[in-house]
Amino acid sequence: MSKNKVEEVAVPFEEGKQAEPVNERAGKVYKLRFPVKHPDGSFIKELIIRPLKGGELRNLNVLPTDSQMSISLKQIGLMSAMPDVVFDEMDAVDIWGVLQEAAPFYVPMTGVTPGS
Questions:
Q1: Which domain holds residue 90?
Q2: Are 35 and 44 within 8 A, CB to CB?
Q3: Helix (H, G, I), strand (E, B), or coil: what is residue 115?
Q4: How far is the C-alpha of 34 from the C-alpha of 32, rounded, in Å?
Q5: Looking at the domain assignment, is residue 6 inside a domain?
Q6: Predicted pLDDT of residue 13
Q7: Interatomic CA distance for residues 33 and 30, integer angstroms
């Protein structure tokens, strides 16, 4: 296999265990404690969170009135390719869990993890 090829690895989920890295560039799998209904009618049981690209950050539509949480959820929506309505229905414990799992993706950009 070439050095540049990204290999995705399936990661089995064990109860009580947090997300495990799949691949540094491919992201992390986060298993939701409380599945959420997607607008298409399916149920979302896990999110794959991946680092954002520069163009996504540049095109992030942030309003002056947006709270830090709102901005974070917009970023997580991009990281997981999920629409805003999914996060509107997501349980707070899963929101905090997803934000925690995404925190390492921010460290290379800022040098600090969110909330520190």
A1: 20-110
A2: yes
A3: coil
A4: 5
A5: no
A6: 41
A7: 9
8 occurs within a structural domain: no
Average pLDDT score, the chain: 77
Residue of 6, 27, 28, 26 lying closest to 17 (CA atoms): 28
Cβ 95 vs Cβ 87: under 8 Å? yes
Residue 10 lies in a domain: no
Q: Is residue 13 part of a domain?
A: no
Q: What's the pLDDT score for residue 89?
A: 93
CA distance 84 to 75: 10
Report, as ranges of residue numbers, the positions in the chain whose pLDDT lies below 70: 1-26, 107-116
Single-letter residue type at 77: G
Domain tally, the chain: 1
User: DSSP assignment of 36-96, as one string?
Assistant: EE-TTS-EEEEEEE-PPPHHHHHT----TT--HHHHHHHHHHHHHT--HHHHHHS-HHHHH
3-state secondary structure of 7: coil
